[in-house]
Amino acid sequence: MAAGRVLVYGGRGALGSQCVRYFKAKNWWVASIDLAENADASASVVVRATDSFPEQAEQVIDSVFSIRFFYVLKVTAEIGKLLGEEKVDAILCVAGGWAGGSAKAKSLYKNCDLMWKQSVWTSTISSHLATKHLKEGGLLTLTGAQAALSGTPGMIAYGMAKGAVHQLCQSLAGASSGLPSGSAAVAILPVTLDTPANRKSMPDADFSSWTPLEFIAE
What we know:
38% of the residues lie in helices and 17% in strands. The protein contains seven helices and seven strands. The chain has helices at 14-25, 53-63, 79-83, 108-133, 156-172, 196-201, 213-217, and strands at residues 5-9, 29-34, 43-46, 70-71, 88-93, 134-143, 184-188. Strands 4-3-2-1-5-6-7 form a seven-stranded parallel sheet, with helices on both faces. Helix 2 (53-63) links the parallel strand 3 (43-46) and strand 4 (70-71). Helix 4 (108-133) runs parallel beside helix 5. It is globular. The model is unreliable at 65-82 (pLDDT under 50).
């Protein structure tokens, strides 16, 4: 019998994979949602890349708790039939990414679109899933950024997206947010995570000052 049940949005990324491994080691049932399967998870939902937010949201909401693995187009099975009376203890949204550039950058529009998809779409979908499938007293965790607590002129798109995640988290804390009774919505605000991608892009940085992925998972 599983010790608990957790949903990890972004479960194939560096941080998400670490979270999946951590909870599996603790004998939890873990579902991963991402653009690719996580073989370590108890169940995986692969979200098809799309330019439509409602379409991606429906992919996840319609299919997330299937015990089987799906290349999702549109799963029509009802969640109630798949879950029964079961709820999850936690939903962790650790999807995201980074893009630099000022308001003058030629890539501004492209980067804004990408950051919105990676951070805001995933956080919003996770929040809606929490209203349906999180236990009373459960935990919803979103991923913000310390940098977005102030202006980010050198990374406009990133700062806007993470600022939106912060606002979403604050709104979810309200009494009428739709979250289950007694549940908590929190946002982690990392500075720099110690990931392979960050080490590759910043090879001369002081890695010892970065936050280990194991620390976040724990």
